């Protein structure tokens, strides 16, 4: 007889093997790689200081470096076809000035996230699913050299203050920009530099695309439009890469144009090119000589209370900035929209209240009751799809908990 007292879970596939996301790349061509490796050894590897100067230099420095690479090919590979030379120079340019072997993943439309966990372990998320890839750097040294070059391109100093940091690249491509999260090897127990790249489209997904991707249907779109127009707040929850920001970005364009909007975020993922009264702020640290000043989401929200704001939007709630959702924004008659990490729609408000308690002594029950001041929609997402929609219906004072009305729930199968 078993000594373990537990209820066995429902049968579920136990995945212990990764699917491979494969890309076509010049770096996978053996003939091109033989030439590239020699070019790299003679132009990149032996000119470390010159490379540093070039990546932080002017357009003239860039042209001189590219001409140097071209001269090497002409002098050492007589008879190299023009198309082959073009490909190798593209490889060289992406290695020195760009995203190197990761470029094909960035160009893939369905890829949203790329992580480098080691020189030979590159993973990605595509259409909401996680994959290993057939992408690899040449060696650990090759990866670390590129990692440091990319930091120099983005003006990130290699010091203890930037061992874990992030930046935004708005110049890499016309169709997307990148949020890049860096973790120096000193913070990583495997002694590997880690980098995470999130692709953010410069053009929002259309509702037709989101329907085809399975995120929404026509009825949901009409529901969201109705609730946005009638002053409902929105809290969109889910794991990273679940589609929270993509959905919120679409909803922002539906906020009535006669209402003011303040968007506060850590990285510039939320935007609107159509709303005339929308202002955007992000967190940052300013340095001047030996002095520095950090401006947080809390600072921006506090200032927003003086600016006659009708809609407060927080890109991603993680900490004490949540307090301003309860004690200020909601109690001034303003509407709140934002995203948060949670396991389901109902627990998203619990998570919101927990974040507010980082900086207050309000009981959880009091904070949750405050959410009944304005009508509120809770959306939970997973794998780029909506899994649940609830509305806050009121507060049950006998049991001291919120009452919800189920609008939608996706059933498995």
Could you give the count of β-strands?
Answer: 17
Q: What oligomeric state do these chains adopt?
A: single chain
Number of domains: 2
Treating each run of at least 4 consecutive H or I residues as one helix, how many helices?
13
CATH class of the largest domain: Alpha Beta
User: Could you give the order of strands across the largest sheet?
Assistant: 10-9-13-14-8-15-16-17
Biggest β-sheet, characterized? 8 strands, mixed
Structural class: alpha/beta
Order of helices and strands: EHHHHHEEEHEEEHHEHEEEEHEHEHHEEE
CATH superfamily of the largest domain: P-loop containing nucleotide triphosphate hydrolases
Distance between the termini: 34 Å
Strand content of the residues, in percent? 25-35%
Global shape: elongated
Domain Bacterial type II secretion system protein E: 193-356
Organism: Pseudobutyrivibrio ruminis
Family: Belongs to the GSP E family.
Protein name: Bacterial type II secretion system protein E domain-containing protein
Describe this structure in words.
The mean pLDDT is 87. With 413 residues, the protein is an alpha/beta fold. The protein is built from 13 helices and 17 strands. The two termini are 34 Å apart. The radius of gyration is 25 Å and the shape is elongated. 33% of the residues are buried. Strand 2 and strand 3 (121-126) form a beta hairpin. The protein folds into two domains: 20-201, Beta-Lactamase; 207-409, P-loop containing nucleotide triphosphate hydrolases (Rossmann fold). Helix content is 33%, strand content 26%. The longest helix has 18 residues, at 59-76. Residues 193-356 form the Bacterial type II secretion system protein E domain. InterPro entries: P-loop_NTPase, T2SS/T4SS_dom, T4SS_GSP_E_ATPase. Belongs to the GSP E family.
């Amino acid at each position: 007889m078993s000594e373990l007292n537990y209820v066995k879970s429902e049968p579920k596939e136990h995945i212990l093997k990764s699917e491979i996301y494969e890309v076509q790349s010049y770096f996978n061509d053996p003939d091109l790689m033989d030439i590239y490796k020699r070019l790299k050894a003679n132009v990149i590897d032996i000119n470390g200081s010159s490379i540093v100067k070039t990546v932080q230099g002017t357009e003239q420095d860039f042209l001189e470096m590219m001409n140097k690479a071209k001269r090497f090919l002409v002098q050492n590979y007589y008879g190299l076809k023009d198309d082959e030379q073009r490909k190798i120079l593209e490889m060289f340019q992406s290695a020195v000035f760009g995203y190197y072997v990761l470029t094909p993943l960035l160009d893939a439309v369905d890829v949203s996230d790329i992580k480098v966990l080691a020189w030979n372990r590159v993973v990605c998320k595509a259409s909401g699913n996680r994959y290993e890839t057939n992408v690899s750097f040449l060696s650990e040294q090759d990866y670390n050299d590129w990692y440091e070059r990319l930091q120099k391109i983005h003006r990130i100093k290699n010091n203890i203050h930037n061992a874990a940091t992030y930046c935004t690249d708005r110049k890499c491509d016309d169709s997307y920009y990148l949020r890049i999260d860096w973790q120096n090897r000193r913070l990583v127990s495997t002694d590997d530099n880690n980098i995470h790249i999130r692709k953010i489209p410069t053009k929002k997904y259309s509702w037709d695309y989101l329907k085809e991707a399975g995120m929404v249907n026509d009825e949901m779109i009409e529901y969201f439009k109705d609730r946005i127009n009638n002053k409902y707040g929105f809290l969109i929850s889910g794991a990273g890469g679940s589609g929270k920001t993509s959905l919120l970005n679409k909803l922002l364009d539906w906020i009535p144009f006669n209402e003011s909007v303040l968007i506060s975020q850590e990285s510039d993922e939320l935007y609107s090119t159509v709303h005339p009264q929308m202002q955007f702020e992000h967190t940052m640290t300013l340095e001047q000589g030996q002095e520095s000043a950090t401006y947080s989401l809390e600072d921006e929200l506090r200032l927003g209370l003086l600016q006659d704001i009708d809609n407060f939007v927080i890109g991603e709630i993680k900490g004490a900035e949540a307090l301003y959702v309860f004690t200020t924004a909601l109690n001034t008659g303003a509407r709140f929209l934002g995203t948060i990490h949670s396991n389901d729609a109902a627990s998203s408000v619990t998570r919101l209240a927990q974040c507010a308690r980082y900086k207050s002594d309000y009981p959880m029950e009091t904070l949750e009751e405050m959410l009944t001041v304005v009508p509120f929609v809770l959306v939970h997402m997973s794998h780029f799809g909506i899994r649940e929609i609830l509305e806050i219906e009121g507060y049950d004072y006998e049991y001291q908990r919120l009452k919800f009305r189920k609008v939608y729930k996706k059933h498995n199968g």
